[in-house]
Amino acid sequence: MRGATILRIVGFFSMGFSLTMLIPIAVSLWYGDGEAHHFLTALFVILLPGMGFAWLGRKASGDLATRDGFLVVAIFWAGISAVATLPLLLGAHLSFVDALFEAVSAFTTTGATVITHIEALPKSVLFYRQQLQWFGGMGMIVLAVAVLPLVGIGGMQLYRAEAPGPMKEEKLTPRLAQTARTLWVIYLGITVANALAYWLAGMTPFDAIAHSLSTVSTGGFSTHDASLGWFHSPLIEGIAVVFMLAGGINFSVHFLALRGRSPMPYLQDVEVRFFLLFVLVVVVLVSLMLRASGEYTSMSSLRNALFEVVSVITSTGFGTVDFSRWPDFLPVLLIFISFVGGCGGSTAGGMKVLRIMVLAQIGLREVKRLIHPRALIPVRLGGRVLRERTLEAVWGFFAAYVLSFVILMLLMMHAGLDQVSAFSAIATSMNNLGPGLGEVASNFATVSDSGKLIAAFAMLLGRLEIFTILVLMMPEFWRR
What we know:
Elements: H1 3-19, H2 22-31, H3 36-56, H4 66-83, H5 85-91, H6 96-107, H7 123-138, H8 140-144, H9 156-162, H10 176-200, H11 205-216, H12 234-248, H13 251-260, H14 264-268, H15 270-293, H16 298-313, H17 330-340, H18 353-371, E1 380-381, E2 384-385, H19 388-414, H20 419-430, H21 449-463, H22 467-470
Antiparallel strand pairs: 1-2
């Protein structure tokens, strides 16, 4: 492994992250909430070690190997989650485990929280939580690879380890740094548009910016305990639905649509079509069942079904009602659709629509093989024949996901949760969703410290798509 190169990259990441503390410092000074010194302390605590790492690795040269990329990504996400606890320890007065849970939840865009009475937090701390989600949404590493070539270090290995989705070898532009910059320009542009829309719909500038950060990142943190339900505004909910869907769609499709100034790429992309159709079918089903229950009118059933289904499947986790109290099998259905998640290359969690489509195609192929044992039946996706290596990767991911889920659920039950709560706690954590069922329907405040640590690990596992973490546990990884 290239130890000096790894130190240098981690150092640059640490220094970059420390500078993000300037934003909540500015918010604190603007609102006069007295928290600026806490963020200033965090800035220097993170900056100085980063400078030290960068100095130790100053003589590094050359590109990263694949193993190095996995290690840097794991160190980065675990390290940032750890140091991101500082403002929460100082400003929100949380215990270390609670602060770590909150930081991991924010950075992985899960949106689960241990905090009650959120409105009582200082404005700068509220904004800091939202800001963490925004940076975690696209992945700060994708941002960092845009500048790595400037310091003589390539970043393709980082991009493959960090970027969500099963087809990570594809790039929008020939050069990786250009790809990363393009993604972030699109990400920033959608966020600005979302903030303006919220503001024009009646939110205060603070709430508009804060909620745009957690909407486009599909994070789901809010500045109010009642989430977006606090505003009681169908218009705000409609805006949220549009931008949650935007966050759940592959950003390469956004790029193609903007470059061609046409909505056709959304209609031509097979994954986006399936995603939107799946959302429509589930919304109709949930709406009809809510209406049949007699608890909602036709319009309110459609409004609540649309918002909650989009919020869950994009793994955002915003709420206007408590879906865990919905009738029949609807609460479990919503947890199940979180496993599907958004499109590959989006900010959403879950296993990704593309993988679900491939798994369905593989299953269909096996059925056909029972009828025609000697037939060569390729798996196609949008007219494209998928390589066997891709199919193996999808099957491997699914197997690793299921096995990890079972083990973590058993550990969560051992930590004191009942079966339903343990199931939904791991589901909401690995799928980076936020709300669950049972004891974790609204928050994780009553979960034991060991349960919170298990959930935090599940969030990282889901955000980095299993293999980035599991590969570090293989003895072969550490052999020369």
